[in-house]
Design brief:
The complex is a heterodimer of chains A (about 270) and B (about 90).
Chain A lengths: L2 E3 L9 H9 L2 E7 L10 H12 L1 H7 L4 E6 L9 H15 L4 E8 L5 H16 L3 E5 L6 H13 L9 E3 L7 H6 L3 E5 L8 H11 L4 E4 L11 H11 L4 H16 L12
Parallel strand pairs in A: 1-2, 2-3, 3-4, 4-5, 5-6, 6-7, 7-8
Chain B lengths: L10 H25 L6 H10 L9 H8 L26
The chains are: A alpha/beta (about 270), B mainly alpha (about 90).
Bound molecules: zinc ion.
């Protein structure tokens, strides 16, 4: 089966993971900018990270026959320092112009603080100014419901942002309706403990339909599975869904959302 | 718009054993922390409250449990003092 992995932090994964994903049928990966596990000491750390995401990581993926795309931002975990956030925001336009950069992400909230919200609003303005797609991270666990509502309001308040050009990721049963009812795309992240299991994600598809939804593994340096996405596709077949539905969820949907950016093109193999 | 599977499978056959195993894991966890005298914790209290929601009909158990474990307040907090989340809401930071 061919599939697209729309959210994976490959900077923190090994070549074995690339090989496994390619073997499972992965054709393209999109990698949002995120927290490194520690706070960077200055904006220069972000410059190097963005250079990696738009330079070395696409080359690493290409050696396994996978196309690699990325998203730029300062993540909400480092958004408490407004001075640093402004310095990083000033760097981003240079990278938005790179041939594999799809937009602004993963922006959002972490603890739902005032400064996080302010930096989120600055990113939304940046996306509007440069006509970019947006990929949004929603907070973890007990902070998710409140944070998702704050994020939905912040984006809807911007008159230039079309909801169909925004994906709000890491939805669960209590937030998927908030996101979809407002016209946004919704991402479902498959994690061993936090976020969703494959069966819960499939339950959500059965209740909300397969429009404007995708699944991702969001693999990073934490406990996560780079093959969670194709494993969920397998589970969908076990649950009685047709190959056409599986193909729509795991290939056509991410292609449709990311394809709103002209740079996203899946090459057909000769 | 709901999406039904093309082929109806027996969901009890598909999911019963996994659910049985998870239920026993919860029971054993609660036994373990009670034996060790560690059961007094806001997260455990929240878990035990949430377990009661399993008994509620209406096919909204997962959503209701997530809501019960969520921060019910509105509006941003003044400042983030941690990056972490605990899985249950302890109340406003003092
Ligand atoms: Zn991520």
């Amino acid at each position: 089966m061919n599939y697209i992995e729309p959210h994976a932090h490959m900077i923190s994964r090994t070549t074995d993971d690339y090989l496994s994903m390619a073997t499972a049928g992965c054709r393209a990966i999109s990698e949002p900018a995120f927290w490194a596990g520690y706070d960077r000491s200055s904006e220069k750390g972000f410059y190097d990270y963005f250079s990696h995401l738009t330079g070395f990581e696409p080359k690493r993926a290409a050696s396994f026959g996978i196309q690699h795309y990325s998203w730029m931002c300062i993540n909400p975990k480092e958004a408490e320092d407004i001075g640093l956030a402004d310095a990083v925001l000033a760097l981003i336009p240079e990278f938005l112009a790179k041939p594999t950069c799809l937009g602004v992400g993963e922006i959002g909230l972490n603890k739902n603080s005032r400064n996080e919200l302010l930096v989120l609003e600055k990113h939304i303005q940046l996306a509007a100014d440069y006509d970019q797609l947006i990929l949004v991270h929603t907070p973890h666990l007990e902070d998710k419901l409140k944070g998702t509502k704050l994020i939905v309001d912040a984006i809807r308040n911007h008159p230039a942002i079309k909801p169909e050009r925004v994906i709000i990721d890491h939805v669960e049963e209590h937030t998927v309706g908030v996101v979809k009812d407002a016209g946004f795309w919704a991402g479902m992240t498959l994690y061993p403990e936090s976020k969703l299991s494959a069966n819960r994600a499939i339950d959500i598809i059965e209740q909300y339909g397969s429009d404007r939804l995708w699944m991702n593994c969001a693999c990073d340096w934490g406990v996560s599975d780079p093959l969670a996405t194709p494993k969920a596709a397998l589970e969908m077949r076990r649950r009685g869904h047709s190959e056409a539905t599986v193909h729509r969820v795991f290939y056509e949907n991410p292609k449709a959302f990311m394809g709103q950016c002209d740079k996203f093109q899946i090459r057909s193999h000769a | 718009m709901q999406l039904r599977p093309e082929e109806e499978i027996n969901l009890i056959d598909h999911g019963f054993m996994a659910s049985r195993a998870k239920l026993l894991d919860i029971a054993a966890f609660l036994d373990r922390i009670e034996r060790s005298g560690q059961a007094r914790d806001y997260r455990v209290d929240a878990l035990c409250e949430a377990i009661k929601l399993l008994d509620q009909p209406g096919a909204l158990r997962a959503r209701r449990i997530l809501e019960a474990l969520s921060d019910p307040s509105q509006g941003p907090i003044p400042e983030a003092h941690t990056k972490d989340a605990a899985g249950a809401y302890q109340g406003p930071a003092s």
